[in-house]
Amino acid sequence: xxxxxxxxxxxxxxxxxxxxxxxxxxxxxxxxxxxxxxxxxxxxxxxxxxxxxxxxxxxxxxxxxxxxxxxxxxxxxxxxxxxxxxxxxxxxxxxxxxxxxxxxxxxxxxxxxxxxxxxxxxxxxxxxxxxxxxxxxxxxxxxxxxxxxxxxxxxxxxxxxxxxxxxxxxxxxxxxxxxxxxxxxxxxxxxxxxxxxxxxxxxxxxxxxxxxxxxxxxxxxxxxxxxxxxxxxxxxxxxxxxxxxxxxxxxxxxxxxxxxxxxxxxxxxxxxxxxxxxxxxxxxxxxxxxxxxxxxxxxxxxxxxxxxxxxxxxxxx
Amino acid sequence: xxxxxxxxxxxxxxxxxxxxxxxxxxxxxxxxxxxxxxxxxxxxxxxxxxxxxxxxxxxxxxxxxxxxxxxxxxxxxxxxxxxxxxxxxxxxxxxxxxxxxxxxxxxxxxxxxxxxxxxxxxxxxxxxxxxxxxxxxxxxxxxxxxxxxxxxxxxxxxxxxxxxxxxxxxxxxxxxxxxxxxxxxxxxxxxxxxxxxxxxxxxxxxxxxxxxxxxxxxxxxxxxxxxxxxxxxxxxxxxxxxxxxxxxxxxxxxxxxxxxxxxxxxxxxxxxxxxxxxxxxxxxxxxxxxxxxxxxxxxxxxxxxxxxxxxxxxxxxxxxxxxxxxxxxxxxxxxxxxxxxxxxxxxxxxxxxxxxxxxxxxxxxxxxxxxxxxxxxxxxxxxxxxxxxxxxxxxxxxxxxxxxxxxxxxxxxxxxx
Lengths: 317, 417
Prior knowledge:
The complex is a heterodimer of chains A (about 325) and B (about 425).
Chain A: E1 18-19, H1 24-42, E2 46-49, H2 54-67, E3 76-80, H3 86-99, E4 103-107, H4 108-113, H5 131-142, E5 146-148, E6 165-168, E7 196-199, H6 207-216, E8 228-235, E9 238-241, E10 255-260, E11 273-274, H7 280-289, H8 307-314
Parallel strand pairs in A: 2-3, 2-5, 3-4, 5-7
Antiparallel strand pairs in A: 6-7, 8-9, 8-10, 10-11
Helix pairs in contact in A: 1-2, 6-7
Chain B: E1 2-9, H1 16-26, H2 32-44, H3 60-65, E2 72-77, E3 81-87, H4 95-103, E4 107-113, H5 120-131, E5 136-142, H6 151-165, E6 174-179, H7 203-208, H8 212-215, E7 222-229, E8 241-245, E9 251-252, E10 256-260, E11 264-273, E12 276-278, E13 280-281, E14 286-291, E15 302-305, E16 311-322, E17 328-329, E18 333-338, E19 341-354, E20 361-362, E21 367-368, E22 373-386, E23 397-402, E24 408-416
C-alpha cells in the first residue's frame, strides 16, 4: 500500500459553505488555531520561535488565522547561529516587514563572545547545540512564559513523546519522565514564576501535512526548499553545503549539483538531498514518494540514537 | 482525508509496539533510514527477527528496559485515512497514560496474548475504554503463531472477553475480535494463510472501513469562548469576536444563542474562519463568532442554543481517574479546568472507589492514590455549565489541577448533578 494523496478541499465560497472537519488539513488546522488561542489567553508573555524554516512559517500563518482581524498578539524571536543560509534570513526579514510583526533576534555569536559557550571545532563542528544557551538567556531576558515552536511528533522519536504544552523548569530543562498528562482538548498552562512552557501547535502534523498546507495556502517559503544548483561535497553518505561555515577536509571534493533542502537548520547541521523539484507541486510529490525520513538529513540527529532526547533535556527547542 | 485517532492498550510483552511497528512496516510507512536503524539494532541485540518495537520506543530508558513508559504518537496514512496512534503503556502503574491516550481517541485496540488469554489487566483496559466511551474497540488476539493459530484457543479467549462485556456500562460500544500475529504479520495488514477459519477483516481492513462520523460522539452545540478578539483598528473599530471551538453540533448565522453565565440572549451575526464568513460552523471548527447585540462575554463563558441550556451548577458528582502520587482526600481543594474555564473546587466526598477490573466497588475508601478510579463529589466556588459525560464527551469532562504544584493530577467524567 502506498502513502496516499491527501485530498485538499477547495476554499469554500464566502457566505456559502459549511466549515467541514473531515479533511485532515482542516482537522489539524482547527486544532492548531485552538492551541494558539489558548496560548494568548493563558500566558502573559508568549513568543513565537521563528527559524525561517517551513514549520515556523506555517506557524505564522496559523497564528494570523487564529487572531484575525487583530494582529498576532506576540512577537517572533529568532536565535541566529550566524551560520544560517542567507536565503532564510532574507526571507525572514521580508515576512516580518510584510506582516508588520515584531522580530527579536538574539545571536549565538554573542553567547560565544561572552564566554558562555565554546565554539566547537573539527570535522563535525556545528553551532546547532550552542543555540540552547542563547535561547535560555533570551527567555530570561524577556521573561517569556510561553515559547511557541514548530516541532512535530512525527519528526523524531523523542519528539513523539512531547506534550502540546510542555513545561520547562527554571533551568529550561525537560523532564520527560514527569510530564503532565494532556486529556481531551484541555491544556493546562499553569506554571510557577521562572518556569516556561514550550508550545507545539503543529504537534500532530506530518511533514506531508505541512507541505500540503503550504501548497494549499500558496505560502511563500525560502528558495532553498526548491531544487537549485549548489556547491556541495559528500561525507558519510550525506550532501553537505560547501561554505565558509562548514568544516571541509582537503580531500573532500567540491561538486556542483541540483539539490534542495527538506529541513532548514544552520548550514553546519543541515544536509541537502538531490532533487529536481523546482516548484511546490513537485516538492509535495517528492515528499509523498520519499523513502527517507526528513531528519535523515539532519547531521545533528546522527550523533547518537538519543541525540534529540539529550538536547531536549538541556532546553533545546 | 479523514483522521482516525486510535488508542492502544495491552500488558507488558503483549506486543503492542510490535503491532504498531508491523502496521507501519506493512503499509510501507517506515522510511529506509528508520528501517535500517531497526535492522542494525535488532542485529546488534542478536535477535532472529526485526524488532519493530524499536520504531516506537523513543526514550533511552524505554529502549534499555524494552518497555514503553510514556504515551507516544505514531502517524501513518493509507489511501483512505490518516491514522494517529496513541501508544500507551500497559503496566498497572500507568493507568493514567491509558486514560490520557483514550481521551483523544475515537477507537481503541486492546491486545491479548493468546497464550495468556484474558487477564486482570485486560479487564482494566476494557474498563477504561468503556469508561471513556470509546465507540469502536478492536480486541486483537496476538501471538496466534505461538498457539498454532488454534481456532479453539481464539474462541476460548473470545468467550472469556464476552463475559466481561456483560458488565460494561456503555452498551453502544462495538467490539470486534481479530486473531493476529504482529511479529509474523498475520491478519494485521495482510490476511493470514494460517487462519482459514477466520472470515473477518484484517486489522487494517477493519480500521479502513470505520465510518468516522459514526464513531464520533455527537451531542448538542456548545461554544466555550476561548478568547475575545478586539482589533481596535480603524477598519475594525467595533469588531468584537468570540473565538472558540464548536463542540457537539453545528452553529449557524441567525441562531438565537444564550450566553452563560449571564443568560443573556442574542443572535449570531457572523461566523468567521480567518477572513471569510460562513453560514454554518460544524463540530470541532475553530471559528470567531460575532453577535447582534453588545453583550458582555469573556473567556470561560459559553454560547449555547436557546432551549438547549446545559446544567448550570456549583456541585456535581464525577468518576475521577486519579493521576498523582499525592493522595486525593475529602476536603482537598483543586482547580477544576472544565474546557477553558477554571474554577476552584473542594472535594465534598469520595463516594466509592471502583475496581477497574469490574470486580466491584469499595465504599470505605478515604483517599485516592495514583491510578485509582472513584466516584467523587465536588463543590465549586463558581457555577460551571456542564453536561453529563454520557451526553456530551467534551462538556462532561474536566481535569483537576493541583493548586500548589500546578500539575494535572486527575481527570473527571461527570455522572450526575
